[in-house]
Design goal:
The protein has 386 residues and is an alpha+beta fold. The chain is built from 8 helices and 21 strands.
Length: 386
């Protein structure tokens, strides 16, 4: 599809499948809808289908529990805690949600925390920085999942099929009819047809993309395997009252919002109830383990991992039997962080030109949420150029 054929008819408009309903998939669908509508007004609707294996969209994960006595929630952003917007085009993209307060800047006080080896002493906490408007970090409110759901709700010409696991693509699923009308057949894991598409865009983590493309003769398969991702374990803690918090957390005014933990299996600690628009929460703390440690233990029993992380958190925050958390949970992300290339280069999207297959995702860039947007932009530019 060339720029001139953006002005198209209902019969000629391409059918586009997006595998993965994370932010890359949602951004891609959003930008595709916008460019089609800008070119055609409301006379032609793009035909976009997102296939998502889980029951929800977006990578901005939130977990919460409700206290039966107070009816208040503990809440943990156990995936991405925040994101940045360094490029002018991404700043422009997020502006509508900033204006609606669904996205908000988070001016957190950040410290370095060195756990004490003596159980009777508290950690050594040193002021590191305060995040500012110069290079803001943004969160979604009231939950980190709110933005992903808003993106999905605002899609007018995209169908999202939840709990649908697309089967690995095979070379025989590509049907070459003529230069302008090649199709790829997609199937679910049970062999049921999901339809035929002009473009197939895979936005899953690279480990899952390798599985989807392994037997397809995808032209850039080797590059998918080159990208390396590491796991992350997340520990979620909650207390019934602020008065029960360990001393390191219970200061007035609050001393810190984010702590970089030194000399520990832990990486960072985030205080959830001190974030913007989170003041009604019960005390909730999210802790990310180090990625290298998580990768080494990615296949360990999660209860054993939870016990190790809990002991490390106790050492970092120095709680006693009177300030022990009442809520404890742990989650494993198998594909969480992208290892940067030594020369700091990015893959960019990977394209199989003849079959019009694209492999995309934040791991094709810097591994962050802004990369989701940049890869979506590259994908849309490629579709519009062909």
């Amino acid at each position: 599809m060339t720029d001139s054929t953006l002005h198209t008819t209902e019969q000629s408009i391409p059918k586009i499948a997006i595998i993965g309903g994370g932010l890359t998939g949602l951004f891609t669908a959003t930008l595709l809808e916008r460019i089609f509508i800008e070119a055609n007004g409301k006379s032609v609707s793009p035909k976009i289908t997102i296939f998502e294996k889980s029951r929800s969209v977006g990578r901005l994960a939130t977990r919460y529990r409700t206290d039966s006595a107070t009816h208040k929630n503990w809440q943990w952003a156990f995936g991405a805690q925040f994101f940045t917007a360094k490029s002018a085009d991404f700043q422009q993209f997020i502006k509508p949600w900033l204006q609606s307060d669904l996205l908000q800047p988070w001016y957190a006080n950040v410290v370095d925390l060195i756990p004490s080896n003596d159980a009777a002493q508290t950690a050594d906490i040193k002021i590191k920085e305060q995040w500012s408007s110069t290079q803001a970090r943004y969160i979604s409110a009231p939950k980190m999942t709110s933005w992903g759901r808003a993106l999905a709700d605002e899609l007018k010409h995209t169908t999202i099929n939840f709990k649908t696991r697309v089967a690995p693509l095979r070379k025989e699923d590509f049907v070459e009819q003529n230069e302008a009308n090649n199709k790829t057949k997609l199937f679910d894991e049970n062999g049921n047809s999901l339809g035929s598409y002009d473009w197939v865009i895979c936005t899953t983590p690279n480990g899952q993309a390798v599985e989807l493309m392994a037997d397809s003769n995808f032209e850039e398969l080797a590059k998918i395997s080159e990208a390396q991702m590491q796991a992350c374990y997340t520990l979620m803690l909650g207390w019934d009252k602020e008065q029960l918090l360990p001393t390191a957390l219970n200061t007035s005014p609050p001393l810190w919002d984010v702590a970089y933990v030194q000399d520990s299996v832990l990486d960072r600690i985030f205080i959830e109830h001190q974030k913007p628009d989170h003041g009604s929460l019960l005390p909730s703390i999210t802790i990310h383990a180090r990625n290298d440690w998580s990768e080494q233990h990615v296949d360990d029993d999660i209860e054993a991992v939870k016990a190790i992380l809990l002991q490390a958190a106790k050492q970092a925050l120095s709680w006693d039997e009177n300030s022990t958390p009442s809520q404890i949970d742990c989650h494993r992300w198998r594909y969480a962080a992208t290892l940067k290339q030594l020369d700091n280069t990015e893959f960019g999207i990977l394209v199989d030109e003849p079959r019009q297959w694209i492999v995309s995702g934040d791991w094709c860039g810097q591994g962050n949420i802004e990369s989701c947007y940049q890869m979506a932009k590259q994908t849309v530019a490629k579709i519009c150029a062909d």
